[in-house]
Amino acid sequence: MSNRLAAIHIKPGPSRQLMIWHRSLSAMTFLAIITAPIDVALKTLLLMILFLLTRLPVSRKFSPEHVAKAEIKSNGWSKIVLAGGEKYSARLRTDSLVTPWLILLRFSLRERWRHPVMVLFQDALPAEEMRNLRILLKHGSFTREEPIV
Question: Taking the domains of the chain in order of start, what are their residue ranges?
Fold first, then answer.
């Protein structure tokens, strides 16, 4: 029996940590607008814009290029689905970031010059899936290969 992981299916759920960061940033922006020495009309306009940005779903979708779902194999090849619904076969890049509380997965596509990204906070996946993903990123065979240019 092989001790290699066959594939990891990633479909992140809503992250509580991301929501905390988002609300903290909104609160700091609110305080900066309120305490700024600017005209009342400009303050009102900025507060209305801040309110719309925090309430509209635009703030939850960073861009249509971010990855909504991914299936990562141990050789580094992945099947990804972007937020816009497009499906691609991509290669996991070696410059993906892994920290204890945040994972940024970058993918290379042959037909695109932009690299789609998947952002995963610590609580976006169940603990076992997050552990398997960290093991795959550390010991996968793609870590010793060159990225697609």
Answer: 7-13+64-144, 16-60
